[in-house]
């Protein structure tokens, strides 16, 4: 049986990991590469469109997405599942991501399976893995009630 303190610590860890995922989405969507890299361990790995290891390589990869034609995007993560074992955690979630790719309204959908560790009292990604099940242009653009191409173009101008 767990103590009250252990249950409270688990809830605090779950919330901290949820916030880690929220900051990941916000920093990636805003093009804030330095803040994004702070969410990873020094030897962290991103495994998605490419596999890159270490903060320097990841920063170059993420900054290069725009040069490759991915000019704006919004992450939506749902069904977050968090399994904690001491100072290690496995995080699973679904992803859908409206984006502008090559000037066209597009959508990506997939699943994250991540590993995080607690270092110096903070949770950080050891590995962030995304597998896309769908990534392609939308035939008629986005639902104007949710997203518009003009607003996407404005969002592509990173501070």
Produce the secondary structure layout.
Elements (H helix, E strand, L loop, with lengths): L3 H27 L2 H5 L2 E8 L3 E3 L1 H13 L2 E4 L2 E10 L2 E14 L2 E16 L2 E16 L11 H7 L4
Parallel strand pairs: 1-7
Antiparallel strand pairs: 1-2, 3-5, 4-5, 5-6, 6-7
Give a verbal description of the structure.
- The protein is an alpha+beta fold and 159 residues long.
- Helix content is 33%, strand content 45%.
- It is built from four helices and seven strands, in the order H-H-E-E-H-E-E-E-E-E-H.
- Strands 1, 2, 3, 4, 5, 6 and 7 form a seven-stranded mixed beta sheet that branches.
- A hairpin with a 2-residue loop joins strand 4 and strand 5 (88-101).
- The longest helix has 27 residues, at 4-30.
- The protein starts with a helix and ends with a helix.
Low-confidence stretches: 155-159
Radius of gyration: 17 Å
> How many helices does DSSP assign?
4
Range of helix content: 25-40%
Derived from helix and strand composition plus strand pairing, the structural class reads alpha+beta
Q: Report on the biggest sheet.
A: 7 strands, mixed
- Overall 3D form: globular
**Distance, first to last CA:** 50 Å
Average pLDDT taken over every residue: 83
How many β-strand runs? 7
- Percent of sequence in beta strands: 35-45%
Order of helices and strands: HHEEHEEEEEH
């Amino acid at each position: 049986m767990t103590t009250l303190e252990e249950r409270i610590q688990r809830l605090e860890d779950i919330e901290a990991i949820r916030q880690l995922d929220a900051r990941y989405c916000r920093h990636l969507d805003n093009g804030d590469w330095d803040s994004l890299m702070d969410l990873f361990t020094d030897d962290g790995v991103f495994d998605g469109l490419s596999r890159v290891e270490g903060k320097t390589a990841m920063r170059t990869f993420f900054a290069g997405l725009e040069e490759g034609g991915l000019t704006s995007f919004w992450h939506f993560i749902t069904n977050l599942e968090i399994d904690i074992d001491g100072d290690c955690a496995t995080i699973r979630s679904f992803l859908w991501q409206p984006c502008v790719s090559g000037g066209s309204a597009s959508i990506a959908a997939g699943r994250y399976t991540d590993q995080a560790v607690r270092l110096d009292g903070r949770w950080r990604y050891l590995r962030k893995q995304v597998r896309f099940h769908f990534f392609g242009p939308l035939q008629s653009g986005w639902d104007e009630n949710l997203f518009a191409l003009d607003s996407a173009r404005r969002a592509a101008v990173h501070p």
